[in-house]
UniProtKB/TrEMBL annotation:
UniProt-annotated location(s): Cytoplasm, Cytosol
Organism whose genome encodes this protein: Oryzomonas rubra
UniProt xrefs under SUPFAM superfamilies: Nucleotide-diphospho-sugar transferases, Phosphoglucomutase, C-terminal domain, Phosphoglucomutase, first 3 domains, Trimeric LpxA-like enzymes
Protein name, UniProt field: Phosphoglucomutase
Entries under InterPro entries matching the protein: A-D-PHexomutase_a/b/a-I, A-D-PHexomutase_a/b/a-I/II/III, A-D-PHexomutase_a/b/a-II, A-D-PHexomutase_a/b/a-III, A-D-PHexomutase_C_sf, Hexapep_transf_CS, LbH_EIF2B3/5, Mannose-1P_guanyltransferase
Amino acid sequence: MKAVIMAGGFGTRIQPLTSSIPKPMIPLFNRPIMLHIVELLKKHDITDLVMLLYHQPFVIKNFFRDGADFGVKITYVTPLQDMGTAGAVKAAEKYLDERFLVISGDLLTDFNLTKVIDFHVDSRAKATITLTSVKDPLQFGVVITDKEKRITQFLEKPGWGEVISDTINTGIYVLEPEILASIPDGENFDFSQDLFPAMLKNREALFGYPAKGYWRDIGNTDSYREAYHDIFKGRINLKIDEPKQDFLGKDLRIGADVTLEYPTGLEGTVVIGDNTQILGDVRIKDSVIGRNCTIEAGVKLNRCVLWDNSYVKKGARITDSVVCSNVRVGQGAVLEEGVIVADETSIGDEAVIKSDVKIWPRKMIEAGATVTANLIWGEKWKKTLFEGAMIKGLSNVELTPEFVAKLGCAYGTTLPKGSYVLGGRDCNLSSRMLKRCFVGGILSAGVNVRDMKMTPLPILRYKLKTFGEVGGFYLRQALDDPAALEIVFLDGDGLDFSSGMAKNVERIYYKENFRRAHHSEPGAIIEINNVVEFYREGFLRAIDKEALKKAAWTVVVDFNFAPASQILPLILNELGCNVIALNAYVDEGRGSKKALDKHAGLKQLSKIVASLGAQAGFWLDPTAEALVLLDESGRIFDGVELLSLVTALFLKTGQKGVIAVPVHAPSTIEQMANQKRCQVTRTKSSDRAMLEVASSSEVILAGTTDGRFAFPRFQASFDGMFAIAKLVELGAASAIPFSSALAEVPASVFLQTSVPCAWEMKGGIMRKMSEDSLDKEATFIDGIKVHFGDEWVLVLPDQHTPYAHIVAEAKDQKAAQRLLSEYQKKVEGWKRELE
């Protein structure tokens, strides 16, 4: 007799276990599930097999080949498309000229198939469906039979009100070959939904045989884990390749070339695959470990499944979880009950994976991270949610509506009940979608939201500096990736969140210790108007209107399709400027795409400025915080050069006070300031550190090396719109064109690079840098900055990415490059020492 094994499914319900292998090849006690089926068939003298493949057929063929190694003969049939269960069997019709049995390749059962076949023959059935009783029949098809076991009724996935039996279809059939004539060629046709109901309607010989024994459909990850539990409890006997060891009555199955230093820590049924190393004192109970694995000392495994080539570092604890192939579990990591970790994933030291979380293949969980939700897309789960004052992720992939709503609830919980926060967004459609979800979470915590809707971020910051709100938030598309979204968190003064504020939100998010408002006390949404007019009035008070009107400059501004295009041209016109506005309309789909093509945009802008004879051109980023300046010839000033130019122009006005720049800004800033009897204060590189300093009454200018400026007389926040007007004012007051202003800046060469640096190495690198700098003049504001007379070099570990930045400044290119290369080699050498 022949058997047809159905082995073509995609295994969608059991993902991520099927991310790299077909479902029938998922290991069950270190052997593919389908091998257990093949051996069950062989046990009942069914050795002529037809395997119906579809998804990843080569994996199954490479394992079973012609079947000779397993004592069977195998014929493979691979339909060209998904034909349904009966349609797939129809594709193998030429091999089925006698009575045959159909069985799924992903079942776990010990049914007596001989009895099923004998019943079929005795009943003279055309088709016999093997039946069994289950506790929860709702997810299966219920089958009703009469006294002779002839089927009288089918109930496909009934509700409880429809359930009149607990007997279900197991997917094991005995069929006569003539039944194939009832299956149409080339059509998607199913046994349970099409063929059997038609046979029932035609009153054909369709019988059901209630089999006794164990049966489980391994259809999802929970069922897969439960199958192991059943085997551990002895509910089904399974062939295990690893030989049984006699050791103090323990049920140990240990493969070849296994290293097991302390078997006393093993309890219950423990299977260890070939060439696996169990190092030191471990605690392992009711677990299956694959081949070529390494388990270090102090590890605790309870009811776990580890596939091949996995590495569990010392002190890790894994409970009732599945760890797939080529996975690294870091030192002290914790995997709670129900966790699934797919192939080639790395879990960092001390990371915690919460209950029932599924992690798809090739992910990286950072050391110390807590994973609370399934990690499907993206590459990593970070240790912290925040990157400084913002949370960034792929829109609708990492930042999903449910994640953002939960985040909003965590944020709202940190705020006083009944308080007000200010919210806004850019023009991107994803920002609008996710902002609504975020606001919903805030409202659920009993906090009110004043909604500015679509607005530039500087205006939202300006409003926060007045009164009435305890904080704010802003959603915007990331400039470096159009698919990513950023949620910026602000305190009640319009400053970026402090690290303490961010940790408070994270703590509530991870613990899910949310405050839920009473049904009569949720927060309210209040639309807020007239803020732009309020901003405009303050803007005009802080500018020398008469000087601008007298100069009557022509300026070209590329607005990048952002909301600032609806505000700034009107203000500049009021100040007497002739504004040529490019991309000056809101486009919900093009803002950040345009910013990504910044080089092409600046090239076009340069040509327009020069051809129109304008005094200046400006490229304003979609956030309205950063800018690029073009002089009257179309030459581009950005980065360090722009900071130096703005500082030089500002010092020419004769204002006295403090200029704030980050620690890595060029020393030429001090040289210029000293000549004008002004001071320079160096700050950490974070935005909050800069803006906190800018809030001081002595500070007259704060500038970064990426084109952002704050003029505290107006507001101590980065504001590209005001910076454009202020630059026009400074240029007009200097009475020299921008092309000549840079001549007053002392000459120097400023270079920087970044070196990959794993998180766990950062502390060691900075220790080595500190030791190397003991006999040198060094400062420690942010990173370590070493001075060599007029030259200096800075090594600064990045706060949010696995990199270390190296910055150098010297009088000429050769000296700067020598300094940069020297310290780059040092950092690379220190990395090798720390490995």
